[in-house]
Amino acid sequence: SHDFTLEWPQILGFFGKLGRRIALLVSQNSTNEQVTTSEITPCPRAIPGEKATINNVTYLLIHEATCSQLSSVVTVRLIPCLYTLVFLVGLPSNALALWVLATRAEKLTSTVFLMNLAAADLLLVLVLPFKIFYYFLGNNWPFGEGLCRLTTAFFYGNMYCSVLLLTCISVDRYLAVVHPFFSRSFRTPAFAVCTCTAIWLCAAILTLPLTLQQQSYPLYGVDITLCHDVLPRHEDDGYYFYYFTCLITCAFLVPLVVMLFSYCSVLRALLDSGKRYSYSMKLTALVLFTLVAFYTPSNVLLLVHYSSYNSKLYGDLYISYMVSLAISTFNSCADPFVYYYVSEDFREKVRRRFFTSSPAPCSQGTHNIQWG
């Protein structure tokens, strides 16, 4: 009797666990729901989520500590306001720059690069309304999976395409200033067109993986669909890790080194020439400053995200990264003013275009347009 009394709580506990297990199995079978979650592994940028398949619909489950970030004031108010400002300033400025360069400027090598830069910035700005609506709706994507993939690919593709074109402009300036006689034979508009074509193809290839992977997922328990901001921990996490690392290296770090070398060489050559180039030196310094100020924070945060185990698991850098990513789009607004509107020659062409009926002859000024 004494032994039976000691074992009785264990027997009750056993049958209690068995009953709960049977009730769980019956509940799952009756509702025809099958829930599977993946193993926790390092995840790409933004917030990591666990995949859950319920009634043949794949949902994402996120840590409750990070769920509040999706509805924070920074996410649903500040970020879309920043994108709205970029859209309102970048659309007319880049459209006007592209129009004037295409219709009034002499077709030189630098003109081709500047036209493509304005086109890349304009395409980036045209994608922003989708992201603006997405964040204002509380991180809810109503446009479907296909448009989510295209928007994500166009956003990153045109952003890094602008960086590559800025690199080409810096190399073109380096060759024109430091090696003018050596580069005269191949610095032609036709060569610039071929180079820009290669850059557009490179940008398309770099962003192609984003169009091949699912980017939008409904969030479990909340009636919203996320687009790229929350990505699942699954068997392709290593794929995303190497993809973003390659993207940052090829489309930002290497171009940044090339631009620093090119512009430092140009500055040194101009300094050796005397004070009459002081305006060009200030403009060159301004170009470097805008590039570093706008693009470096988001790329650095992305690298820090990969090196931090806690950020990989819970997405602690989500808000910081998304704000810095929105700030990086301001470079699309700065490009027209830095490369075009600081030039009196460009402003004169705009005045002639709008306020005179007869076209004025093209001046020597695409180099003037770029460097004043």
Automatic annotation (TrEMBL):
<dbReference type="GO" id="GO:0035025">
    <property type="term" value="P:positive regulation of Rho protein signal transduction"/>
</dbReference>
<feature type="transmembrane region" description="Helical">
    <location>
        <begin position="157"/>
        <end position="178"/>
    </location>
</feature>
<feature type="transmembrane region" description="Helical">
    <location>
        <begin position="82"/>
        <end position="101"/>
    </location>
</feature>
<comment type="similarity">
    <text>Belongs to the G-protein coupled receptor 1 family.</text>
</comment>
<dbReference type="GO" id="GO:0005886">
    <property type="term" value="C:plasma membrane"/>
</dbReference>
<dbReference type="InterPro" id="IPR003944">
    <property type="entry name" value="Prot_act_rcpt_4"/>
</dbReference>
<feature type="disulfide bond">
    <location>
        <begin position="148"/>
        <end position="227"/>
    </location>
</feature>
<keyword id="KW-0356">Hemostasis</keyword>
<keyword id="KW-1133">Transmembrane helix</keyword>
<feature type="transmembrane region" description="Helical">
    <location>
        <begin position="190"/>
        <end position="212"/>
    </location>
</feature>
<feature type="transmembrane region" description="Helical">
    <location>
        <begin position="283"/>
        <end position="306"/>
    </location>
</feature>
<keyword id="KW-0812">Transmembrane</keyword>
<dbReference type="GO" id="GO:0007200">
    <property type="term" value="P:phospholipase C-activating G protein-coupled receptor signaling pathway"/>
</dbReference>
<keyword id="KW-0094">Blood coagulation</keyword>
<keyword id="KW-1015">Disulfide bond</keyword>
<feature type="domain" description="G-protein coupled receptors family 1 profile">
    <location>
        <begin position="93"/>
        <end position="339"/>
    </location>
</feature>
<keyword id="KW-0807">Transducer</keyword>
<dbReference type="InterPro" id="IPR000276">
    <property type="entry name" value="GPCR_Rhodpsn"/>
</dbReference>
<dbReference type="Pfam" id="PF00001">
    <property type="entry name" value="7tm_1"/>
</dbReference>
<keyword id="KW-0472">Membrane</keyword>
<feature type="transmembrane region" description="Helical">
    <location>
        <begin position="240"/>
        <end position="271"/>
    </location>
</feature>
<keyword id="KW-1003">Cell membrane</keyword>
<keyword id="KW-0297">G-protein coupled receptor</keyword>
<feature type="transmembrane region" description="Helical">
    <location>
        <begin position="113"/>
        <end position="137"/>
    </location>
</feature>
<keyword id="KW-0675">Receptor</keyword>
<dbReference type="GO" id="GO:0015057">
    <property type="term" value="F:thrombin-activated receptor activity"/>
</dbReference>
<protein>
    <recommendedName>
        <fullName>Proteinase-activated receptor 4</fullName>
    </recommendedName>
</protein>
<dbReference type="GO" id="GO:0030168">
    <property type="term" value="P:platelet activation"/>
</dbReference>
<comment type="function">
    <text>Receptor for activated thrombin or trypsin coupled to G proteins that stimulate phosphoinositide hydrolysis. May play a role in platelets activation.</text>
</comment>
<keyword id="KW-0325">Glycoprotein</keyword>
<feature type="transmembrane region" description="Helical">
    <location>
        <begin position="318"/>
        <end position="342"/>
    </location>
</feature>
<dbReference type="InterPro" id="IPR017452">
    <property type="entry name" value="GPCR_Rhodpsn_7TM"/>
</dbReference>
<dbReference type="InterPro" id="IPR003912">
    <property type="entry name" value="Protea_act_rcpt"/>
</dbReference>
<keyword id="KW-0732">Signal</keyword>
